[in-house]
Amino acid sequence: MSNRMQTTTCALLAVACLVMSSPGGRADELAAQFTSPADAYKPHTWWHWMNGHVTREAITRDLEDMKRMGLGGFTLWNTQEGTPAGPVKYASEEWWALLEHTMNEAERLGLEMGMFNGAGWSSTGAAFVTPDKAMQEVAWTEADVKGPVHVKMKLAIPKAALGIERDMKKDPVINRRYYMPREKVDGYFRDIAVFAVPAIPEGQKPWQLKDWRNKAAFGKMTDRFLPDERKAPADQVIKPEQMLDISQFMNADGELNWEAPAGNWTILRIGYQPTGRNNHPASEGGRGLEIDKMSAEAMDFYWENFLNRVVKTAGSRIGNTFFGISLDSYEVGHQNWNKDFAHSFTNAMGYDIRKFLPVITGRVVGSVDFTERVLWDYRKVVGDVIANNYFGRMAERAHAAGLQFANEPYGSYGNTSDAVVAGTVDIPTCEFWANDGKQLGRSAEAKVAASAAHTYGRTLVDSEAFTGTPERIFETHPGGIKTQGDYFMAQGVNRFSFHTWAHDPYGVAPGLGLGTYGSRFDNRNTWWPYRKPWHEYLSRCFYLLRQGEFVGDVLYYSGDEAPLRSEELRREMILPDLPRGTDYAFANPEILHQLRIEDGWLKTEKGSSFRILVLPDSPWMSLGDLAKIEDLLTRGAVVVGKRPLSPPGKINPGESEKFQALVGKIWGACDSRTVTSNKVGKGVLYSGLPLAEVLQQYGIAEDFSFAHTTKEKFGPTLYPGSDIEFIHRHAGSDEIYFLSNQHDAGKTVVAKFRVAGKAPEVWMPDSGKIYRLPDAKTLGQQTEVTLHFGPGESYFIVFRDASKASAVEPAPWLRSEKLVQDLSADWSVSFQLGKTNLTEPMPKLVSWTELKNESAKYHSGNATYRKTFDWQPNARPGSGAGSKLSLHLGAVQVIARVVVNGKDCGIAWKKPYRVDVTEALKPGENTIEITVANLWVNRIIGDQQYPDDIEWTSQTGSTAAGQGLACIPDWVKNKTERPHPERKAFYGWRWPHLTADKKLLPSGLLGPVMIQSTQPPR
Q: Is residue 454 within 8 Å of 550, Cβ to Cβ?
């Protein structure tokens, strides 16, 4: 295991003396840590300080609660989103003192702490950032003249912050959320050049390339950029010699004195100016211009003026308590110039981009093809400079301070390649939204982040986990999102940082949130006291998913174009013919060029190995990439890809000939139809042959495959994906497979694993127990076993040497199960309604929403079911000695704790909602208590029946539908009786869909409740 976090290493050493022993007496650290993982493997949370509403006492309370519920750490964020200003101004001395208190408390409690690099959630800005150090874009004005004539005129400059009217939804009111006031950057315009070009013929509309604005780096692509195959009107194509650089004829005041030759001319005054974008949604005192992403100098300026004090405050906690600096997904728009860009471009491409500036205004120069090529170069340099000078420089400064750099390496309206940015990150991070299976690009984002870890040899892949959509606010709970989380673990994620925990010093539930966003993982949620078993489940998963290295067969080269969105790297788009049981990772240009061949395998310097390299489906490929591919093939690589047509960008003399020679050598006679392979040295290039057939030719079976034992149709998966998702890691002599049933139904499958000569065991992360699989069969180089999955169930199959495979008890599904006693009838239910209790008889289990009492009908929180029953084990077939007895709760909305005869039997947080009661039951009379927590939704709906006592405002600074708090009510701040006590909940956002007539969510224990026994196999 390489590059493990220092805290993880320390944690492993700390538990070394506690490890179990295998039959040979050797320490079995893997099994011991799986049973009881160290703190380093616990999930984290994002912890938002909401616009200055923060106190020392509440900090201590929150962090102690995090520790108590099994969280391993947090990342601190400061934001405003929909929340009025509180008493603590961002970056004030009071704020710094609270930050130091937070670090002290995290150290005391043994919690890991990270911190976002600034206010808001995107990206890097502050009030102290000046226009010269802000993000810049090319801007121009146009003036038409008819020659021959002496031109004497003052050339206008563009309006400042053009994007206020131009970008996003083209709504200036909404867009002001993302921009500083225009006055902040007004007048800051710097000239690049002045050109005179032939004017568009009178009466014609300008002819422009498809998607020219994004191709000129004024935005991020929605699809991969392809060359425009149309032919431009000849009279709108500007010949290079017709572009007249007349910069020398304009003085410093913008006055042009120039003798215009005959013809109709358009004068272009081209320069650059700040985009005006700000960091958002920033806390009070933290809002300002975003720094120049192309400038390492600007990053250093920001670091010295803010992050350096964070480092000094952390002091000796760095590398122990305080682990790093984070960036969220990139959401602050494009940048396509700065004061050093022309120099950077010349160094990268060998020519002066200033000579071709009219292409950035949407004009065609030379030809459509030539214009496309110049713009390709332009975008490429823009993307690389941002990746190096923003993301890369942030990482360098973090490393120099002893910190790690965590980042979601993607975002809308940026200019970079997500795959390239992922290579700059120590802790690559993705995001996924709870209860939302429509955001299919999230899978690719996760795969890009995980691929960075797989190829760069990094251990940790973090995630902004279960971000809540406003339409499903408060509907998230552990059992409802487990399968979605399992899906992303199978993509390579091995830590969840829950989104989100909003800090609230007032304590009136559910209280402040992240405006309208975020699933509520804080200590004011109804199911907060019951979440620890889920955390334990996740910790065991994360432990195994960080062991050893990723196993994949295919390495997909993402290409060297910029920008490149993760969305464009979805499996079904790039690898549609890859068998589901074959895994893959992405390689960016840096990884491609560090690959070497050993025994036919593609080896990265620090990461995993792969068997087959797949090239992107692109008409372009650079000479450098082609030369590397030829070298890999010569040394024995297997490469799959279509023949490219041309090198990208502006072609220099001799490059086309070199390109054709390399392509001819690599692809030979391949036409992707009649000829589908070409031998190159020791390697082979395939084109047009399905990947499955290529894999088969080299005897590469699917790593994991399965067949159902019945023809039952299971319907759609709970989250977009396949029937059973998997990921495989190799750790020493152990082969670790994580398997996830993505259906809300049980199933039995006959599974094959590409492992032979080892004993398979079932490692259950919900209990920490390990079971043997007695019916395993060896079939050549594969092992076949029969597996059973409950609804949405996930577990590990671990293949071990026989000397370490110590499990005795057979897999749980091999035990026979029998109904022993039905307890579904005759309960009483007590609702905890603040200072009073309401007890209702419940002869038949029904949802609370069906009760007549409105306090119970709209109740959100806890209710305890009680029942006394007679238990006579000798009179119950199947419940004698050796039997295991479990209490099945049937349907639960949404989570429950079971106590039998005063003994805590555990928490049922997921299907099949059952707990072991073997040791708790006794002959004769037994008492049972089942405490159930539901969701906040019903109480919020119930409150809408009564007059409101909260002042709301639409002036929230948010783009989301709904209203935010105009102020914190006095009755909340002072903890006095509220004006309308029939309303029970206090919340920080008014959602338009949570109305009085909204349908209530089923709540409570719905059953049937049964005692069941399981018997060991005979």
A: yes
Within 807-865, residue ranges assigned H as helices are 854-857
**Residue for token pair 């464009």:** 568
Phi, psi torsion values for 678, nearest 5 degrees: -150, 125
Dihedral sign computed on CA atoms, order 1000, 1001, 1005, 1009: positive
Gap between the Cα atoms of 478 and 753, Å rounded? 30
The continuous run of DSSP H or E covering 290 comes out as strand 289-290
What per-residue confidence (pLDDT) applies to 1?
34
Residue in 429, 490, 426 with CA at minimum distance from that of residue 456:
426
The per-residue pLDDT for range 111-166, each reduced to its tens digit, is 999 999 999 999 999 999 999 999 999 999 999 999 999 999 999 999 999 999 98
Cα(676)–Cα(401) distance, integer angstroms: 52
DSSP for 64-94 reads HHHHHTT--EEEEEEE-TT----SS-TTSHH
Report cis status (omega within 30 of 0) of the bond before 227.
no
Q: pLDDT band at residue 944, thresholds of 50, 70 and 90?
A: very high
Do the beta carbons of residue 460 and residue 469 sit within 8 Å? no
- Give the pLDDT mean for 623-634: 98
For helices 478-490 and 532-545, what crossing angle results, to 10°? 0
**Which of 46, 40, 65, 69 is closest to 531 using CA atoms?**
69
How much is the pLDDT for 26? 39
**Beta-sheet pairing, 914-916 with 924-933:** unpaired
Residue 622's Cα: distance from chain center in Å? 31
Contact yes or no for 206/362 (Cβ under 8 A): yes
Q: How far is CA 680 from the centre of its chain?
A: 40
With beta carbons less than 8 A apart as the criterion, state whether 617 and 642 touch.
yes
**What is d(CA 120, CA 78) in angstroms, rounded to the nearest whole number?**
6
Residue 392, classed as helix, strand or coil, is: helix
Residue 594: phi and psi, rounded to 5, are: -100, 0
Order of strands, sheet of 190-198, starting from the edge strand that comes earlier in the sequence: 136-154, 255-274, 190-198, 244-245
Is pLDDT of 7 > 60?
no
Q: How far apart are CA 544 and CA 377, in angstroms?
A: 43
pLDDT in tens, 534-580: 999 999 999 999 999 999 999 999 999 999 999 999 999 999 999 99
Give the mean pLDDT of 257-274. 98
Going by pLDDT thresholds of 50, 70 and 90, the confidence category of residue 440 is: confident
Which own/partner pairs from 989-993 qualify as long-range (CB within 8 Å, at least 24 positions apart)?
A: 989/82, 989/473, 989/513, 989/515, 989/516, 989/962, 989/963, 989/964, 989/965, 990/950, 990/952, 990/962, 990/963, 990/964, 991/470, 991/473, 991/516, 991/940, 991/961, 991/962, 992/961, 992/962, 993/470, 993/471
CA distance 568 to 443: 11
Task: Compute and round to an integer the Cα radius of gyration of the chain.
Answer: 31
Alpha carbon of 628 to those of 531, 585, 695, 791: distances in Å?
51, 19, 22, 47
Backbone angles phi, psi at 296, to 5 degrees: -65, -30
Beta-bridge partners for 639: 613, 685
Collapsing DSSP states into helix, strand and coil, what is residue 633? helix
Q: Are 815 and 1015 in contact (CB under 8 A)?
A: yes
The percent of residues in the chain predicted with pLDDT above 70, rounded, is: 97
Residue 18 has pLDDT above 50, yes or no: no
Residue 406 has what pLDDT? Answer: 98
User: What is the Cα–Cα distance from 944 to 992, expressed in whole angstroms?
Assistant: 11
Report the pLDDT value the prediction gives residue 873, as an integer from 0 to 100. Answer: 86
- For the chain, give the longest Cα–Cα distance: 112
Beta bridge partners of 507: none
C-alpha dihedral, 211 to 212 to 213 to 217, nearest 10° = 100
Q: What is the pLDDT of residue 437?
A: 77
pLDDT given at position 880: 66
